[in-house]
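Write out the bound-state structure for guanosine-5'-diphosphate.
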Amino acid sequence: MSTSTDDIQPINERTESAQHQLKLVLLGESAVGKTSFLHRFVKANFTDKREPTVGAGFLTKTFRLDDRLIKLNCWDTAGQERFHSLAPMYYRGAQTAIVMYDVTKQATFEKAKDWIRELQRQAPPHIVIALVGNKVDLCDSVSSIQQQNNDSQDNSHDDTLNFPENEEHQDRQVAKEEAAKYAAESALLFFETSARLNMNVDKVFTEIAQNVPTEYLTPVRQPGGNKSSTSLLNNRSSNNIDLSNGASGSRVAGSGCAC
Ligand SMILES: Nc1nc2c(ncn2[C@@H]2O[C@H](COP(=O)(O)OP(=O)(O)O)[C@@H](O)[C@H]2O)c(=O)[nH]1
Ligand SMILES: [Mg+2]
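---
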């Protein structure tokens, strides 16, 4: 199975329509980098000071995977406990989930395990879950990240691999081996990433999509029986992006269908 980011190719939506769509939910403690990670994938950018997500956000991206065009409908949840009760609305019917933690904060790894237990109890049984340890740029040396980046070939975006001086070095609190072992025991995909440095970002999404059995891909509805890229979520975006929560992240709960 190929995992190269070469799998992600630009799409001309005027001439090509996605045949399949996938619902993906992002879960994890607040401030681990979920929104940054999603924006890195969909919009190819990174903002240092991001406002916390309130309720949930929604973004889509259509990409080619092997010989299929896949539209990924991504629900980005807020990590705060007060929004926990909303989470089932977002993982209900999801074929895929990313559960994220911050490698410099052990407590976020423990929270990620809680989310995984909840998903394994309550989400659809065939859901593909990726455990993602983000912010490795804070604790790993630039040379080791560069090495990993070369290994993963994840250098497809324009503003990537712009290594900052790491003034805010923090100690790693979650060992890669420990998280990888937990992921293997729990039948999860596992990655360490940096949204800031664009390390392994595309790889997470392509591997998740590749791991969804074809029979669980949802066909894109085609009104009138003709070709159309209209999705079940009525995404009006013509450039693969639909951020329902606006730039500052207002709440979408109740304003859109997350089913
Ligand atoms: N150093 C570093 N900071 C990151 C990374 N990803 C996100 N951040 C920062 O972490 C903070 C929280 O990010 P955000 O995406 O809002 O987290 P969320 O609450 O999980 O959605 C922001 O200040 C981001 O700039 C990363 O990979 N490395
Ligand atoms: Mg967020």
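---
The chain has six helices and seven strands.
Residues 1-7, 155-160, 225-257 have pLDDT under 50 and may be disordered.
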